[in-house]
Amino acid sequence: MLTLMYLQESDLQLIEETCTGRCRLQRGPICPTAPRHMDLGGFMKRLWAVAAAIMIMTGGNETTRAAELNPACGAPGRPVSEQGFVQIGGIPQWVAVDGQDCANPVVLIVHGGPGNPNTPFARNLFGDWSKDFTVVQWDQRGAGKTYGENKPAEDEPLTVARLTADGVEMARYATQRFGKRQVILMGGSWGSALAVNIAMAQPDLFKAYVGTAQLVNYQLDMQASYTKTLALAKAAGDAQSLAKLEPLGPPPWTDPRAFGILRRITRKYEAQGAEAPPKGWFTFGPGYDTPAYEADYTAGEDYSFLNFVGLHGDGMGPQIDLRKLGTQFAMPVWVLQGEVDLVTPQEVSKPYFDAIQAPKKTWISLPRTGHDPNRIMIDAQLAALKAAAATH
User: Fold this and answer.
1) β pairing state of 333-338 and 361-366
2) How far apart are CA 213 and CA 222, in angstroms?
3) What secondary structure does DSSP assign to 138-199, as a single string?
4) I need a surface site. Which of 124, 125, 266, 280 has the fewest CB within 10 A?
């Protein structure tokens, strides 16, 4: 019965998107197309006949059979490369997909920032992943091309609840689009906190959760970050950094500039112990290397960051405390943490991980790695995703 219900919902979405034309494409069929004079009655009769035949079959792989009827995955071995706006949460949101075989597992990446989508440099960071996975990138509300298409008023707030609902809808779209019952959810930094909210809100959509630079509790993370960075600056006799850190005092902060001041200094000290990323990794790729896009990216980053910290320390970030969601995960969990991460230090993320109850959980400490991506982090993420895909 699950197969029948899944096929019905998936193809009804196909009919709805075809008839309303609610998606605008830039390259590739994010929304399927079909003649507007489609015989819906005949289509549904054929659909029910096929679904009934599948229900009585035994053996084989259910995901593969569903994919064979899915518009994006006509047959195993078919590559997927598409990008465009998808209606999520009542607005068009930007989605980019890359994979060499649509029969592969799907990974939904929840980007960090907030306001820092991976899409401009996804091929540089994750291009090799397309051999083993269908990688789905999503510009969150208030970020990147989604921001450019839906410029909000300055006083229009971003909320964790709204972004969580968007993420659940995005995951459901990905399962239906690519003929999967579940996807693997991956998030880093801000994206790790949002991804845990998404996973907790609709756990049946996710085969596994992979978190990197796990943000657990903003206040505790910032306190540990400030304490460790201040100690490093004192040990180094770094008068310039101390002149900026000491007036801030330890968090909580009400000055929206405080986080940014600390973050710039943490990058300085992380760089001393972390392997640098390859040159050119964070250069905007084709289709994103235009003045208009760069302006939207910067504006979205500013808008999202201000909503994150809040004008008076009352933004989304200071409200984050993942323990309030509970520590019982319905899916396997991997947490990857840089050993020299000064933004989400292991002193906070490891006790949270230890408290997690899950069918399987794995902690991975990354040497010579800070908060930002480098080759060590990307390779470890791919290895974790492969382990997650193999988990039954």
Assistant:
1) parallel
2) 13
3) E--TTSHHHHHHSPPPTTPPP-HHHHHHHHHHHHHHHHHHTT-S-EEEEEETHHHHHHHHHH
4) 280
Tokens representing 60? 């084989």
What's the number of CA atoms in the CB half-sphere (13 Å) around residue 338? 29
Q: Cα separation of 276 and 161, whole Å?
A: 35
pLDDT of residue 225: 98
Nearest to 95 by CA among 112, 82, 114, 110: 82
CA angle 340, 189, 89 (to 5 degrees): 175
Is this model's pTM higher than 0.85 or not? no
CA distance 385 to 271: 26
Residue 76: the pLDDT is 77
**pLDDT above 80: residue 179:** yes
User: Whole-angstrom Cα distance, residue 135 to residue 128?
Assistant: 10
**How far, in Å, CA of 42 to CA of 240, rounded?**
73
Task: Give me 28's structure tokens.
Answer: 């590739």
Closest CA to 62 of 187, 142, 180: 180
Is the pLDDT at 177 greater than 80? The verdict is: yes
Helix, strand, coil shares, percent, the chain, to 5: 50, 15, 35
| pLDDT score, position 70 | 54
Q: Using alpha carbons only, how large is the chain's radius of gyration in Å?
A: 22
What is the Cα 20 distance to its own chain's centre? Answer: 28
Residue appearing with tokens 């980019």: 96
What is the chain's mean pLDDT, rounded?
85
Residue (of 365, 345, 364, 320) closest to 221 by Cα position: 345
